[in-house]
Write a structure and sequence with these properties.
This protein is an all-alpha fold. About 80% of the residues lie in helices and about 0% in strands. The chain is elongated, with a radius of gyration of 17 Å.
Length: about 150
């Protein structure tokens, strides 16, 4: 087996593992996914970091095995880091999803009216199709495999 094939198998395994773990939480909405990531990080620390930083792991695999620096994956990782992960690494110890989502909303938006708060909370709890819930994972898979095949 050549290094491209090994890299592709590792990338597929990492993304499939993340989706499998998240699916074990029966995710139906964005709030469910955000809370599942927070819960995994707090209760299963090593597993949580593996699940959270899957894009970084893929970037490291590409650099180490194939000497490819995928700018698109780095940009996606940075966006996730700033938009999502900063809400997972909060100093809060709760196992209640509603408390956690309330804190996240209040941290994101300092000055909210009650109606704006309810609207944001409603959007986070709105059931979404699976393809929307795992859109980031699908994009990472596409760009990672594409850069390996093109590189």
């Amino acid at each position: 087996m050549d290094l491209k094939l090994i890299s592709e198998i590792l990338i597929i395994s990492i993304i499939a593992f993340r989706i499998y773990i998240l699916e074990s939480f029966n995710i139906k909405s964005a709030a469910d996914k955000l809370f599942a990531l927070y819960y995994i990080k707090n209760h299963y620390t090593i597993l949580g970091y593996i699940i959270l930083f899957y894009i970084l792991e893929i970037i490291i695999i590409q650099i180490a095995l194939l000497k490819i620096v995928d700018i698109v994956l780095i940009i996606i990782f940075m966006m996730e880091l700033f938009l999502i992960y900063r809400h997972i690494f909060i100093a809060l110890k709760t196992d209640d999803r509603d408390d956690y989502i309330d804190i996240v909303i209040k941290r994101m938006f300092k000055t909210l009216t009650y109606s704006e708060y309810q609207e944001i909370k409603g959007e986070l709890y709105k059931p979404l199709p699976k393809w929307k819930l795992y859109l980031t994972e699908m994009m990472v898979f596409f760009f990672a495999i594409w850069s390996i095949e093109m590189g």
